[in-house]
């Protein structure tokens, strides 16, 4: 909730109280330098004991509510016919309006099943933007993705409120060029993760639906970050300011044939699901569910997680839940922006994103500026971010680098986990780093996996810039922090 202070400032105030805590510690810079070297300058390979604030992701790192925890205690453990599953389907029906639900172990499992059933060799999947695992599954099934985002999408210094919109003219042209039969489905991602958590508008989704219906094309919604997208529509789209999050979400869902999500984000639970109102689509997907996930009533999730997800779906339409991360992200972005640090604007859904190209313009894309900046943020703060740039794209079939559209460093804000003073600390150290950006150098691969290389790849700094950065940090802040 936003509270107006007496001096005119607006403060995001938590509408919950914290009753269970986990200790964290701030390892000194010298320790961070050693940990980063051991992790091959890849923040994925750090151990959490070496991390102060874990802003790698908002996936599976959010705080559950007391009601979610309580629901886990009454889960019905059964291989088949579990009552927990029927409580989940009731929540999906009540909140989103879908009849059929397939539980899966996480979002990428849903992507795998959808690609298995709908993507054939030569198929194309137009979308507002890809996510790493989405692209991998579509390509593994022999298809390819077509990114038809709006011109504003790649402008990191924009104030355009809906950078996650699909370009409708390009969509029309794709239909004409490829023909509807080659289009497996059109995919809309609610707050496009890799564009910086940017939402689409309801009017754009309505047009996507209209064009898709004209040509008999399925509309698939990746709803992993649906609460944030609904929250932004309420804030930014004319005609929706007086609607509730529930009403907005229901309208979004009514425009999709199939919805899937990673429950690790908006529902705060490890798991995922696919939902639809089409009996045939459900049966086609169900046929493969036991092969890759599990029986129809658990699909790779524990019944405890299913219970927590059912509650999470009902809670996500509470405006204070839907906006809990978005308002902290806004604060984070606006404070860094005011300090002259290059961030992606407008603030998006899941994280504050640094624009590495503008932060360290002296590092060419081939030397992975976003990866280098992510490592530098950790060295200068103990805060763990994630690279979202060229490292996150795999090489093409001929082994050439695929330079990313954007070189971003993601500082995720897990829902209801960190306090504003911790965010203030991160702002302070990132501002310091920006003042010393000339100390940061590039990276090169030492070990490079062939697929999704950003997870396990090991890199080394070009030159000894890590040590020089830490020396400057110790000069300004002392040896102990
Ligand atoms: C938009 C989007 N889709 C799909 C996924 C994959 O979900 P999971 O990590 O649960 O497999 C993610 C994960 O971050 C995501 O952000």
Question: What's the helix count?
Answer: 19
Q: State the CATH superfamily name of the largest domain.
A: Type I PLP-dependent aspartate aminotransferase-like (Major domain)
Strand content: 5-15%
Measured distance between first and last alpha carbons: 33 Å
* Count of DSSP strands: 16
The CATH architecture of the largest domain would be 3-Layer(aba) Sandwich
Helical amount: 25-40%
Coarse shape: globular
What radius of gyration results from the CA coordinates?
A: 22 Å
Strand order of the largest sheet: 4-10-9-8-7
Biggest beta sheet summary: 5 strands, mixed
Task: Report the top-level CATH class of the largest domain.
Answer: Alpha Beta
Ligands, ions, cofactors = pyridoxal-5'-phosphate
Poorly predicted parts? none
What fold name stands as the CATH topology of the largest domain? Answer: Aspartate Aminotransferase, domain 2
Question: What is this entry, summarized?
Answer:
By secondary structure, the chain is α/β, with parallel strands linked by helices. Helix content is 40%, strand content 13%.
Topology:
Elements: E1 2-4, E2 10-12, H1 29-38, E3 53-54, H2 66-72, H3 83-96, E4 100-104, H4 107-118, E5 124-127, H5 132-140, E6 144-147, H6 168-178, E7 186-189, H7 202-215, E8 219-222, H8 226-236, H9 245-254, E9 258-262, E10 272-276, H10 279-286, H11 289-292, H12 303-315, H13 319-322, H14 324-338, E11 351-355, H15 356-359, H16 369-381, E12 383-384, E13 386-388, E14 408-412, H17 420-435, E15 443-447, H18 453-456, E16 458-461, H19 465-477
Helix pairs in contact: 1-16, 2-12, 3-12, 4-5, 6-7, 8-9, 14-17, 16-17
Bound molecules: pyridoxal-5'-phosphate.
Pyridoxal-5'-phosphate (PLP) binds at residues 59, 106-108, 131, 133, 189, 193, 222, 224, 262, 264, 272.
């Amino acid at each position: 909730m936003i509270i107006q202070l007496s001096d005119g400032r607006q403060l995001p105030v938590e509408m919950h109280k914290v009753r269970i805590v986990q200790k964290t510690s701030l390892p000194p810079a010298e320790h961070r330098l050693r940990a980063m070297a051991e992790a091959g300058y890849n923040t994925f390979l750090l151990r959490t004991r070496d991390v102060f604030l874990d802003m790698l992701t908002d996936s599976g790192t959010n705080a559950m509510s007391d009601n979610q925890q309580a629901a886990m205690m009454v889960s019905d453990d059964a291989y088949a016919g579990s009552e927990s599953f029927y409580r989940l389907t009731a929540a999906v029906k009540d909140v989103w309006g879908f009849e059929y639900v397939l539980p899966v172990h996480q979002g990428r499992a849903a992507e795998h099943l959808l690609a298995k059933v709908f993507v054939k060799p030569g198929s194309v999947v137009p979308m507002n933007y890809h996510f790493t695992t989405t692209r991998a599954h579509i390509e593994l099934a022999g298809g390819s993705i077509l990114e038809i985002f709006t011109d504003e999408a790649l402008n990191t210094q924009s104030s355009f409120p809906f950078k996650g919109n699909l370009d409708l003219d390009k969509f029309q042209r794709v239909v004409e060029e490829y023909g509807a039969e080659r289009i497996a489905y059109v995919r809309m991602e609610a707050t496009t993760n890799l564009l910086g958590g940017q939402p689409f508008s309801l009017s754009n989704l309505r047009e996507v639906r209209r064009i898709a219906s004209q040509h008999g094309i399925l509309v698939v919604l990746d709803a992993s970050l649906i609460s944030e997208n609904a929250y932004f529509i309420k804030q930014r789209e004319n005609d929706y300011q007086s609607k509730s999050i529930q009403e907005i979400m229901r309208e979004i869902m009514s425009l999709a044939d199939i919805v899937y999500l990673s429950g690790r984000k908006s529902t705060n639970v490890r798991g995922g699901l696919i939902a639809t109102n089409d009996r045939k689509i459900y049966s086609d997907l169900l046929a493969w569910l036991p092969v890759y996930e599990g029986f129809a009533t658990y699909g790779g999730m524990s019944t405890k997680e299913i219970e927590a997800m059912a509650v999470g779906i009902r809670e996500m339409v509470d405006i204070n839940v839907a906006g809990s991360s978005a308002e902290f992200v806004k604060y984070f972005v606006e404070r860094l922006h005011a300090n002259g640090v290059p961030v992606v604007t407008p603030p998006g859904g899941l994280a504050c994103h640094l624009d590495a190209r503008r932060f360290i313009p002296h590092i060419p894309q081939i030397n992975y500026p976003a990866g280098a900046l992510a490592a530098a943020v950790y060295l200068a703060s103990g805060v763990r971010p994630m690279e979202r740039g060229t490292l996150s794209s795999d090489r093409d079939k001929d082994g050439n680098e695929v330079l990313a559209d954007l070189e971003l460093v993601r500082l995720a804000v897990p829902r209801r986990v960190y306090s504003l003073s911790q965010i203030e600390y991160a702002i302070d150290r990132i501002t310091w780093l920006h003042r010393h950006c000339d100390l940061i150098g590039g990276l090169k691969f030492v070990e490079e996996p062939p697929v999704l290389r950003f997870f396990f790849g090991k890199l080394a700094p070009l030159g000894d810039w890590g040590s020089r950065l830490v020396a400057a940090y110790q000069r300004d802040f002392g040896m102990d922090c």
